[in-house]
Design goal:
The complex is a heterodimer of chains A (669) and B (318).
Chain A lengths: L1 H22 L5 H27 L3 E5 L8 E5 L1 H24 L12 H14 L3 H19 L8 H27 L7 H6 L4 H19 L8 H7 L2 H26 L5 H23 L4 H28 L3 H36 L10 H4 L1 H14 L6 H14 L7 H33 L6 H4 L6 H19 L1 H16 L26 H22 L4 E4 L17 H4 L1 H11 L3 E5 L10 E5 L3 H21 L7 H22 L1
Helix pairs in contact in A: 1-2, 1-4, 2-3, 3-4, 3-10, 3-13, 3-19, 4-5, 4-10, 5-6, 6-8, 6-9, 8-10, 9-10, 9-12, 10-12, 10-13, 11-12, 11-17, 12-13, 12-16, 12-17, 13-15, 13-16, 13-19, 13-20, 15-17, 15-19, 16-19, 19-20
Chain B lengths: L1 H34 L9 H11 L2 E4 L4 H20 L15 H21 L3 H32 L4 H9 L7 H17 L18 H4 L5 H26 L11 H28 L8 H22 L3
The chains are: A mainly alpha (669), B mainly alpha (318).
């Protein structure tokens, strides 16, 4: 039942996309496209939630589409239902936001047809139950999102972003194609059902894992395959940026989980080590990159890389536990990763919406030209603050709960017998702690420089609050962040069927706990109650406020800032994004980015201004991509000669090729 | 009945940390002054300071937003709750299962996040420098703290403070290299987090080296009183955590009767005084370091915590 509803929703979204091609110029096109998208995604959210909470048990259907001998298989199980919930919740929020935001679009013809098609593509990837449908939907999703990235293709940098995105997407699809080829084996069972019943040999399994990590990981943004993400995500219109960062990366995580946990069969312990290591490096690198940015949307995009790292740490731990038959621990680690998937989709969408509102109000993405927006856009500022606190893993919001669960999973890992893991996992714990602390610094900078202080430019001074639709979307997501933070038990229980199906165990059910405390393993070991913590902090704050207002002086006077007696009226003397991150750049950046600061101070009497320059090197780019690009150029230059040969030379080449092929054929037999 | 008792202990604890925190700060100041051959302020001076600040008017900068006025209350409430969740004189607090050690570290992180935002709110260069440096210090101190927490949790098999305290009191822990490393790491983190010498100087103003004081430079009146009280509470919290985790002897267990609670209280006050004395000696004996030496200091704390955890992973036989 739910499966049919979901497929109809996807079909409706596709149909809307096609209709929008014809009607994009119409006056009400924007409202109707986003309205239909909102309706379809809300229905899909309800269907997915019903399937996850009530229905249980998979349902499948085979449609006569695609390859005639295969058909198109679709299936709705717990993992699919959960991922659809994430996809469509993000989609619904983005559609609601776009009802207001989309009106400012200067070229609706380049956005409106692709937006619903993008949503449909993501839904179909998750629903697909055979390799052909999966890859087709995957590629459709990539291409449509590429079109959305290129919507404003005349803006500088966007064309390059689209080009790199297209290259990386092709690489990812190629890796997934090979992975499915290996999984299907010589028999060619391309339906997922067939793949589930065959267990590949150890070598093939390892190869599939590596290919899935490259294929799904490049879409999700793991280091060093992340390079396209901070270019492409900010280039799209903000509601699409939110979808790409908050939702499409989660579809990639779904792809990885589907292949590795479901199709591949029992894992080996070194898979866990590899995935955990990749996750840890990704988390720290992502947040350090984000700290160095002063473009608000690019900062958010880099920060997605960090959160993907945290998710992959959880997935890697789950693999390691699963390989050692520690099902309960594997369930905890997988629950932590999936809950972080859900949480990140909420707060990353929220933050991109906030960045979009700032962009609409000021036309600026550069934080160095903003500031003081909390006075002009108080509601947007409040929603962005909630998102910032949630993504910085601060209690009592939701980001903290999933990171806390990941820490709890790390604390269970002394039980792992392999020595490599014994050395690796504590280091990963340190990396995770480091990335959590750096994330807080990153969002103090993002929120503080953008919204606090004094406006640095006239556009920031004259900004106006954004429209009601956008605010409604932001506040809905902020409320969900708070709800998932203070009553996480309800959300964790919903994940039980997912982990049960994938690792054969689930976390203890949290429903009947006192005070809605969540308990990962046992009460004596660890527990956390967001609701109780929230209540007592609120009570303490209320008592404090009451006492202060009752007994203390209530006099307040407005005056110029103190600033140690030397306040400077120019807003340019404030701390900027660059100066805020300078200490961290100096501590970490000198190693990670080979950061070099040069100060050029003219001698006394010289009227030239002093100059300060920072040079950062993107090490993965220099070490990995530049050599590859150079090799491709080199090969192209030399193959160029083949194009300008005489007819005799061509005939010789053809003859030579024929001889070689015949020789190979002879040797084969 | 047991719940009522736990609730009573919890309420006493809430009041106790609030009452004792300024005293601890006053004690440290007084001892430091004595060691420098100065008379020093009386022990009750921090209380008087707070009361005086509460009676004064608030001078707000023109560019201060609503967030600037809300933050002192939130910072104070968060720190207060965090301090009240650490077992001081008795274990078995009624709220103890609401937050474990990791959550308490994260609660302090919330308070710091808000305070750093307040530093940026008015839009002055001093506020910015304070926030920026505070977050740099925190980016190393928080992971170091978490590694220490990991060490103790692995030993005790729990991240709950009361369980760790109970297991440390048991005889099967013994002396371990990990514990020593963790203790040194925790002390280093505590010094950095409370803005003490050699990381920051709590007694200075108008110096480019200051961190915490620069961040709260624009606060005055009741707002400043709340922030000062929060930093007193934070110092008390860290001393309590060190005492509770490494020297839990004498702490009252729930259901032992009133005498045990009173004894626990007396022992706790003595331990606090000893902690204050050691801090004063340490601060007098050492010089403030440059800001960019702090990462080395905290990097050492992080490495100590990491080594302590690693040793446990490697030495544990399962």
């Amino acid at each position: 039942m739910a499966l049919e509803v979901l497929l109809w929703c996807a079909a409706a979204l596709l149909g809307t996309g096609v209709a929008a091609v014809a009607a994009a110029r119409h006056r009400i096109a924007s409202t109707s496209v986003y309205g239909v998208a909102l309706g379809a995604t809300v229905i899909a959210v309800l269907a997915a939630a019903w399937s996850l909470l009530v229905q249980h048990g998979p349902a499948g259907v085979r449609l006569p589409l695609g390859l005639p001998w295969l058909g198109a298989h679709f299936r709705l199980d717990a993992l699919t239902a959960f991922s659809l919930l994430v996809v469509n919740l993000g989609g619904a929020a983005a559609s609601l936001y776009a009802l207001g935001y989309g009106r400012h679009e200067e070229s609706p013809g380049r956005v409106l047809p692709f937006y619903p098609a993008f949503l449909a593509g993501m839904n179909l990837v998750v629903l697909a139950d055979d390799a052909f449908t999966f890859l087709f939907s995957w590629e459709f999703m990539s291409l449509v999102s590429w079109a959305l990235v290129m919507a404003h293709h005349r803006r500088s940098g966007n064309a390059a972003a689209g080009y790199i995105y297209l290259l990386m997407a092709s690489l990812g699809t190629l890796a997934l194609l090979l992975a499915f080829g290996l999984l299907a084996g010589a028999g060619g069972g391309y339906a997922f059902e067939a793949m589930r019943h065959t267990t590949p040999s150890a070598g093939v399994g390892g190869a599939v894992l590596a290919l899935a990590l490259i294929g799904a990981g490049s879409k999700a943004g793991i280091v060093p395959l992340h390079v396209w993400l901070p270019l492409a995500h900010p280039a799209a219109p903000s509601h699409v940026s939110a979808l790409m960062s908050g939702v499409m990366t989660k579809v990639a995580v779904y792809g990885f989980v589907r292949i590795v946990f479901d199709l591949l069969g029992p894992p080996q312990w070194w898979w866990g080590a590899l995935v955990t290591l990749v996750g840890g490096v990704t988390a720290v690198m992502g947040v350090l990159y984000a700290l160095m940015q002063h473009d608000l949307k690019r900062l958010l995009a880099y920060h997605t890389v960090e959160n993907i790292g945290i998710i992959f740490i959880g997935l890697g731990l789950a693999l390691a536990f699963q390989a050692n038959q520690l099902q309960a621990a594997a369930a905890l680690a997988l629950t932590a990763a999936l809950f972080h998937v859900f949480n990140h989709s909420l707060f990353k969408s929220l933050l991109f919406f906030g960045a979009g509102a700032v962009l609409t109000a000021t036309g600026e993405r550069d934080m160095e030209r903003l500031g003081g927006l909390i006075h002009r856009m108080p509601l947007t500022a409040f929603a962005f603050l909630v998102g910032s606190a949630a993504i910085s893993a601060l209690p009592p919001l939701n980001g903290f709960v999933s990171e806390w669960l990941t820490f709890q999973a790390i604390l269970l890992s002394p039980a792992l017998p392999q020595w490599l893991l014994k050395f690796l996992v504590p280091a990963i714990g340190a990396l995770l702690a480091l990335s959590a602390a750096l994330a807080a610094a990153c969002f103090v900078k993002a929120f503080g420089v953008t919204f606090l202080g004094r406006p640095r430019t006239p556009v920031a001074r004259d900004a106006v609050e954004t429209d009601r639709w956008s605010l409604a979307a932001m506040f809905a997501l902020a409320a969900l962040c708070l709800a998932a933070g203070i009553v996480p038990g309800q959300f964790l229980d919903a994940l039980a069927p997912v982990t049960q199906a994938l690792v054969g165990a689930h976390m203890p059910l949290q429903e009947e706990r006192a005070w809605l405390t969540i308990v990962p393993i046992a009460e004596s070991r660890s527990s956390y109650s967001g609701l109780l913590l929230f209540t007592i902090i609120a009570l303490a704050a209320w008592i404090t406020t009451w006492v202060i207002h009752r007994w203390a002086s209530a006099a307040t006077r407005r005056a110029p800032p103190w600033d140690c007696g030397f306040p400077d009226p120019s807003p340019l003397t404030q701390y900027t994004a660059g100066s805020f991150s300078q200490p961290i750049r100096r501590v970490f950046g000198s190693v990670v980015f080979r950061a070099r600061e040069t100060v050029e101070l003219p001698p006394p009497g010289d009227a030239r201004p002093a100059r300060f320059a920072v040079r950062l090197r993107d090490v993965p780019w220099d070490l990995l991509y530049v050599p590859v690009a150079r090799a491709v150029n080199f090969a192209a230059d030399h193959l160029d000669k083949v194009q300008f040969m005489t007819i005799r030379a061509y005939l010789t080449l053809v003859f030579g090729a024929l001889v070689v092929l015949l020789a190979v054929l002879a040797a084969w037999q | 009945m047991a719940i009522a008792l736990d609730a009573a202990v919890q309420l006493v604890q809430l009041a106790l940390v609030l009452a004792l925190a300024p005293l601890l700060t006053g004690l440290v100041r007084r001892l430091k002054a004595h060691m420098l051959r100065r008379q020093g302020p009386p022990l009750a001076q921090p209380y008087r300071d707070l009361l005086r600040l509460l009676r004064k008017e608030v001078v707000l900068a023109h560019s201060a937003s609503w967030l600037f006025r809300v933050i002192p209350y939130l910072v104070f409430a968060t720190t207060w709750v965090a301090a009240a969740l650490v077992p001081t004189f008795a274990v078995g607090l009624v709220f103890s299962n609401a937050a474990d050690m990791i959550a308490i570290v994260a609660l302090l992180g919330s308070a710091r996040f808000l305070l750093a935002l307040a530093g940026l709110d008015v839009g002055t260069s001093f506020g910015g420098i304070g926030s920026s440096r505070e977050m740099m210090i925190a980016s190393l101190a928080e992971p170091a703290m978490l590694m220490v927490v990991f060490t103790l949790s692995l030993l005790a098999g729990s991240t709950q403070l009361s369980s760790i305290a109970a297991s440390m009191q048991g005889s099967d822990v013994g002396l371990r290299v990990s514990l020593a490393l963790a203790l040194v790491g925790l002390v280093m983190v505590a010094i950095a987090e409370n803005a003490r010498i050699p990381v920051d100087n709590p007694a200075t103003h108008l110096e480019l080296t200051m961190v915490h004081e620069a961040m709260i430079l624009e606060y005055s009146g009741r707002h400043l009183a709340l922030i000062e009280a929060a930093s007193h509470l934070k110092l008390l919290l860290y001393v309590s955590v060190i005492v509770c985790l490494f020297f839990p002897w004498g702490i009252a267990v729930s259901g032992q009767g009133l005498a045990a609670y009173l004894a626990g209280l007396a022992v706790y006050v003595l331990k606090l005084a000893a902690g204050g004395f050691l801090l004063a000696v340490f601060e007098t004996a050492i010089a403030k370091m440059r800001v960019f030496r702090v990462p080395d200091f905290l990097g050492a704390a992080l490495m100590l915590g990491f080594l302590a955890t690693l040793l446990l992973f490697v030495s544990r036989v399962t």
